[in-house]
Amino acid sequence: MTHELRLLFQTLKSWQASGKKAVFISVVALEGSSYRRPGVCMIMSQEGEMVGAVSGGCVETEIERQAQRVFQTGKAKVIVYDGRFRIGCEGIIHILIEPVSLSEELFSAFEKQVKIRQPIQMEAWFYREVGEYGDVGSMVTLNGKKYPLHPSFTMDQIAQQKCFSQTLKPLFQLFIFGAEHDAVQLCQAAKLLGWKVTVIASPDESKSCEYFPGANSLISPTFDTIDTSEIDEQTAVLLMTHSFNKDVQYLMALKDTQPAYLGLLGSNNRRERVLSMLLDHMPDISSDFLEQIHSPAGISIGAESASEIAVSILAEILSIVRHQKPIFLSEKVGSIHE
User: Fold this and answer.
1) What confidence score (pLDDT) does residue 337 get?
2) 216 and 152: one domain?
3) Alpha carbons 83 and 128: distance in angstroms, whole number
4) What is the 3-state secondary structure (H, E, C) of 190-219?
């Protein structure tokens, strides 16, 4: 996912500035089932430092051993890890370990792509057979231009290799309207998911961004100056102001948006009162807008504390975004990952 790749690139930039060599590790193919899907990646320095993961932790020891050869030769390596006999995942994982040298041009173009919220294309060219290769590696496509993760790998070398391609969506973001204690808990939990979090507080609030660990920013616009232009299909919006009037005014400002998720905190009775007040002010508001509101926000897990409610809300957002109906995994037929 984009936030994971961004962390890897930022770490690589830091490592390179201090003279550390590194390898880029990615799962490029899978037969059967595994802890994570193809496309997941991580990095490792020559000193053995690791950022990211391609499994639950069971494959990384083997990767560290195999990566030493890549550091010695400068050539990429394809390895296969058979989890059927080692970790019980019933899958065979094909892993590409390649030298990585992040150019300043690639890093700058990547950060720009993230900032303007454009998708990122990644391609990994590899052979399915175990071995060392000088003509395999990964490419990142940004604004139509391809950047190799290592200058020794070029598109001219591509012939019979297999290709794993993935498109990374813009960073998922969460807009929280409200600045009470439960918003603090939601910020912290959303940050762990790698989401970009923006807190919108009314001008009469006396809070700063420091009050919300995990938040990227806090803004306090007046109701008539709220900028909704950044709310897109990779955005979740949650109203949790604990004020009927504020919720109504925020909904009026959001009336032309179509986020991935729009939630309203509170009970069924509270929802009906808020929507009734909204219709009094805007009787012609679109029914499509009203129908997209999830309220009471969250899924039923018996949540009581603010942190538990945050888990409930984030679980609902993920289920909506991933088009999944929440069920016990023990009751699910077939693969966990679909």
Assistant:
1) 59
2) no
3) 16
4) HHHCCCEEEEECCCCCCCCHHHCCCCCEEE
Does 128 lie in the same domain as 151? Answer: yes
Q: Alpha-carbon torsion 153, 154, 155, 157, what sign? A: negative
Residue 56: give the domain boundaries. 2-168
* pLDDT recorded at residue 139: 95
pTM confidence score = 0.86
How buried is 215 (Cβ within 10 angstroms: 0-12 exposed, 13-18 middle, 19+ buried)?
buried
**Residue at which a domain ends, from 151, 168, 185:** 168
Same-domain check for residues 48 and 98: yes
Judge whether 236 and 263 are in contact, CB under 8 Å. Answer: yes
Residue 318 confidence (pLDDT) above 90: yes
- For residue 24, is pLDDT > 60? yes
pLDDT at 335: 67
Give the number of other Cβ atoms within 10 Å of residue 112's Cβ: 12
Question: From residue 97, how far is each of 27, 130, 198, 247 by CA, in Å?
Answer: 9, 11, 36, 50
Mean pLDDT for the chain?
Answer: 91
Is there a single domain that holds both residue 54 and residue 194? Answer: no
Q: What pLDDT does residue 57 have? A: 67
Give the residue with greater pLDDT, 301 vs 59: 301
The answer on 164 and 27 residing in a single domain is: yes
CATH number, domain of 296, equals 3.40.50.720
